[in-house]
Amino acid sequence: MPRLLTDTDVAGFRERLIAAAEHLFAEHGPDGVTMRQLAAALGVSPMTPYRYFKDKDAILAAVRASGFARFASALEAETADSSDGVDRSRATGRAYVRFALENPDAYRLMFDLTQPNEADYPELVEASARARASMIRHAQGLVNAGEAEGDPRMIAHILWANLHGGLVLQLAGKLSPDIDPSALRREAFAAILRGLKPKG
Amino acid sequence: MPRLLTDTDVAGFRERLIAAAEHLFAEHGPDGVTMRQLAAALGVSPMTPYRYFKDKDAILAAVRASGFARFASALEAETADSSDGVDRSRATGRAYVRFALENPDAYRLMFDLTQPNEADYPELVEASARARASMIRHAQGLVNAGEAEGDPRMIAHILWANLHGGLVLQLAGKLSPDIDPSALRREAFAAILRGLKPKG
DNA sequence: GCTGAGCGTGTACACTGTAAACCTAAGCCG
DNA sequence: CGGCTTAGGTTTACAGTGTACACGCTCAGC
Question: What pLDDT band is residue B86 in, cutting at 50, 70 and 90?
Fold first, then answer.
């Protein structure tokens, strides 16, 4: 038999293909990229990727999972920075926005795109759960610091929905042209925090 | 020459095709529907739709524009109901949510799907502008009623981003399972309104 | 009644994702 | 060392896609 593929061989190929796919998907959209192009980008024949991924959908899922993983890491990196709950929460929000604006295509791939059967790709749901956990942790920080009152998970979701909504509208070009997106985020965040502050 | 197509003929055909496409797109997604199926649904040959639409993309744009038009009408219908600014704003929000939840596929087609060159379809941008105007008008109502302080356009966008974000996360199944979407909307709306209320 | 144009259709093509047969070269056994 | 076996990669093939193009049918105007 031929040289068997070691696990690191497989992982290496998958990684290279995911990286290539990420760039191509970002530029032309998943439907604008063909398996033949992906294969050519790695210098292999069109059918070779099928040995490493079930089908094109699995490649898309892998690309999205990889995006979520980088995203989660970016959020988690902010945990260390400061011990003040509010600062940390704000830093997390900034990291969130920065990621979305620096990787708009990845962000859209991750959130906009509704892949029908995401549940079939465990690493995708896991990476996505990691990101969510980060957000909830930081909402918890807000509550602990006495800056907000209520269920931390609910608070996290309020802030998340708000951030996400503003971002996708911005990325889709749907915001009114006379609205500055970053001012929108700032004012929305401020209003929500004012609204959640304990009466004390 | 044969019986020339009157404008109403053309409009009629376009309407029927849009209606058929709306159902099929909702069920299978735009990519899951072929021109041949669309044509078959109207009982014509596969190439006939090309006399009424430039290409498949134009059909998608028309379906989306039609969605936006219905959406705008649904929002505008709430203008008449009550003279109280807050009630009216709340009713508009309810109408927004109702539309999104009763037509989830249309809503996703309208907002999620980022069609690359929407600017090429004027009726699409116009219908979408109508919907936005409705929202701003109702934010103005909130300000007039003394329930909120600030630029009505900004306030409209804050509420919109929040609503939209929550809805797309819900429709995409990304909300944590222990979060009730309608409770999320209620609490978010309440928090924002508290945060925007004038100091009195 | 003829003509010519506009409408719908049929045919054709380049391209897609991917199944299946095929080739190649390397590890094991004798 | 030689042959068998088999995993990894390629080639071929196919059904199905969007749509360009050219063909006929059918009627309005002369």
Answer: confident
